[in-house]
């Protein structure tokens, strides 16, 4: 059994695609590919807090993101109506 080259904690599950990463690190790589700098931003903003403050920050972040998306949708529907 080999240890993941990224986290250096978890074992690599087999040698799928000649991987040297564990399944969790592979998953994180996928998120980084999809969301790029946003992933680092979220980790910096949230994990640097104590656990109770993390929950508040997560709620706040989600609220802002949902509001932004709602605003975009409203703008789009207004443009369509014109
Ligand atoms: Zn790992």
Q: Please report the number of helical segments.
A: 3
**How much beta, percentage-wise?**
under 5%
Structural class: mainly alpha
CA-based shape: elongated
Helix content: 55-70%
Q: First CA to last CA: what distance?
A: 63 Å
* Number of domain modules: 2
Main sheet specs: none
Spell out the helices and strands N to C. Answer: HHH
Q: What is the average per-residue confidence, as pLDDT, rounded to a whole number? A: 86
What ranges have pLDDT less than 50 throughout 5 or more consecutive residues? none
- Using DSSP, what is the number of strands? 0
Q: What is the C-alpha radius of gyration, as a whole number of Å?
A: 19 Å
Q: Are any ligands bound, and if so which? A: zinc ion
Structural overview:
The chain is mainly alpha-helical and 82 residues long. The protein folds into two domains: 1-35, no CATH class; 36-82. Helices cover 67% and strands 0% of the residues. It contains three helices and no strands. The longest helix has 31 residues, at 51-81. The radius of gyration is 19 Å and the shape is elongated. The structure holds zinc ion (ZN).
Sequence-ordered SSE layout with sheet pairings:
Blueprint: H1 23-35, H2 37-47, H3 51-81
List keywords for this structure.
mainly alpha, 2 domains, binds zinc ion, about 80 residues
Short account of what is shown:
67% of the residues lie in helices and 0% in strands.
């Amino acid at each position: 059994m080999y240890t993941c080259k990224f986290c250096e904690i978890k074992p690599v599950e087999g040698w799928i695609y000649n991987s040297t990463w564990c399944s969790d690190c592979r998953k994180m790589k996928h998120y980084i590919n999809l969301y790029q700098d946003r992933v680092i931003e979220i980790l910096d903003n949230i994990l640097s807090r104590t656990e109770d403050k993390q929950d508040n920050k997560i709620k706040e972040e989600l609220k802002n993101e949902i509001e932004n998306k709602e605003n975009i949708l409203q703008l789009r529907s207004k443009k369509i109506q014109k």
